[in-house]
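Summary for the steering committee. One of the milestones for this cycle was to obtain a three-dimensional model of the protein with manganese (II) ion bound, which we needed before selecting residues for the alanine scan. The sequence and ligand used are listed below.
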Amino acid sequence: MEPLLDPCNDRQVTSVEPPPSLPLSDEAMWSDMDVPDWEVVRDHLKKEGKLQKEQVMRLCETVLEITKKEPTLVHMEEPICIVGDIHGQYYDLCHLLEKAGKPKKINYLFLGDYVDRGIFSMEVVILLLSLKINYPEKIVLLRGNHECRNMTQHFTFREEAIRKFDEEVYQTVMDVFDAMPLAAVVSKKYLAVHGGISPDLKKLDSLESINRFTEPPTDGLFCDLLWADPLDDTEALECDYRDNQDRECSYMFGRKPVKKLLEKHDLMSVVRAHQVQIDGYKMHRWDGESSFPYVVTIFSAPNYCDYYSNKAAVLILKDDKISIKQYDQSEHPYFLPDQIDVFSWSLPFLADKVITMLKSLLEHGITDEDMVDEDLESEAVSKVLETAERSKKVGVIKMKVKSVARMHKIFRTLKDENELLLQIKGMAPDGKIPKGLLLEGRPAIRDTFKEFAQAKKLDEVNERYPK
Ligand SMILES: [Mn+2]
């Protein structure tokens, strides 16, 4: 497809290919009648190309028909790549698919949290749906705690879907989320879920009793599968379950209930996602350093929110072996926070300049000598006012200078806020992090561990169940 034209030849960043000029054509997309050419879709989206609404609707409807028929607990076999949270990081998803291998050769189990936070959530959904239609049995998409109306409304996906398409597309994607299975058993050895186990999960059969075709509830088995976390390594040995204070919903679980469930079903580990890890994964070895992990956490969004400096990882099960593949962030196109357009974003800067000019003009109007160039709000103001008072034009000038000073202050603040937004970037999609805290910001010396710890601390509030 022809890239976007550049008639004046004034494209600023020539190293980046211009986006395609038109949405993907049906001929290019549905090469094989009812199956989308997922590689064409992938490359088109990678170049920031658009899809037509009807194409996305058709993807959703086709996948809905497939997932609807899947059991709540899916069974899968090796070789398989298990993928953790992606959170709208489309370019990293493309990278991991390259790295882990073609779905023709290896199965894929995605553990949920495809959307929110990252700004390419719609692209992630489109690519995953295209893959699912191509390989309905080899690719399974489990539901994460973000695959629901409540979370996507609170975070960024709803807005993104409506901006890129419309409300109907958003609602249809939600219907697809409603149909996603909740758990998988892989190679008869691993239980895979997004969050974790539940006090209500005595045996795996109970999963089939869940009515999953709905918005997830705020407690009970369904909720825990999506929200629970493992306890930290020391507490896990002493405690079975305790309230999950970090999430303000569901539980944290320890060794004993995991062990019991695994033994009952002759399984080896619980594989789950849901928590960012500095290395992209964590082995919860609760029987000592060299023991086999009871729980494995996998997180597949590198440099989460463009801020955490974490590595990402996927888990590969192949030839009876378990291995981890790590990867770093891939470059992605730059977007202003909250997807503000450049014009709106830069208005305060322009206004600030105009007012500074106005200020100089006024100052010249009063006297040529004792003018100070800098801030009107401080000494300069009183000086200007004093001078003006001495002259005859007191009233008028005084008012003019005052109102200009006030406008100057307003636009300074707006400008500063926009600059601050750039630093916060994707961290606080809804402004929920105190900006002051973030401004204290990154440690002066680059220290990945410190940065990761700090990002986690600042981002704590976004891991909670939104009230
Ligand atoms: Mn999650």
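Key point for the committee: Residues 337-427 form one domain.
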